[in-house]
Amino acid sequence: MTGDPFPVGRALQSEQQAWRVAVVIPCHRVRRHILDVIAAIGPECAAIYVVDDACPEGSGRLVEEQCADPRVRVIVHDVNRGVGAAVITGYRAAIAEDATVIVKIDGDGQMDPAEVPRLVGPILRGEADYTKGNRFHSLANIHRMPRARIVGNAALSFVTKFSTGYWDIFDPTNGYTAIHASVAEQLPLERVAHGYFFESDMLHQLGLVSAVVRDVPIDARYAGEHSGIRLKSVIARFSIAHARNTVRRLFYHYFLRDFSAASVELLLGAGLLAFGGIYGSLQWLEWRDRGVGAYSGTVMLAALPVILGTQLLLAFLGYDVARVPRTPLHPQLLRGRRTERLIQRQHRSA
Description:
Order of helices and strands: HEHEHEHEHEHHEHHEHHHH
Shape: globular
Number of helices: 13
Distance between the termini: 55 Å
Helix content: 40-55%
Radius of gyration: 24 Å
Low-confidence stretches: 1-9, 11-17
Structural class: alpha/beta
């Protein structure tokens, strides 16, 4: 990427008291790349948390022995808990040490640390609570991606849009992310998936608190790194997890926290579509077995609910797309904290 979309690096160096950017690097079988990744992280980052998730190659020990960067702190898991658990450990450490924004970078060298200012820019400008990389913005970058990743990400992107409510994002499994620390504190991190579903589950949890998520175009580097994901083994788990998250999101937003015209459209649309589909199928089987044609009235009794149900669900979908969060959450959280501190000081001085 060229140009300087936001002078975050300079701003951070001149306003160290106002902003504190921390980097979390989960480590598992990244011994060959981890030192280069750390060395490429710019001075705009005040802290680096290397989380060794019981790496069999001893990546954490390597960093402790050969990395002299004073910003680095190594945290070691006794057992392998998954990439999501490693990131959560880093989040909690960064929050405890007063980080403002927390960036997650993989240790395999596929993410360019020079992109950190671009990634944290929307958050520091108060435009987003969470940012994530999007490798599909550049056509040249897409051509460099393995075909399996292109197809898999395209399919996952649509499913994730529905399960999270973020209809305006793409590349949901991209692990190059940044989050405002105050928003991370609001999330039930103990409930977020600990494995490879972590990124998608984070989006789901962010959607439940109505945080603003924004895509940031970035390039990804592919140099034959080994991926720990086995496509066949995760398809079933991802499908179940997305289905669960979809039901939870719809229940929370349209029935528990609010009940609107969209809630009625969803209920009636799903009910009519199900009735028409089931009734029509049963009638078709009956007439087929009898070897005669169906009556026009029977056909209409099955077709009309299907048509009406489809229209109602499309209307609901339009409402759901329009309600993507647009107002960042973290400025409100920070104002609330300042008000609480002011009230506490007034009580102490009274």
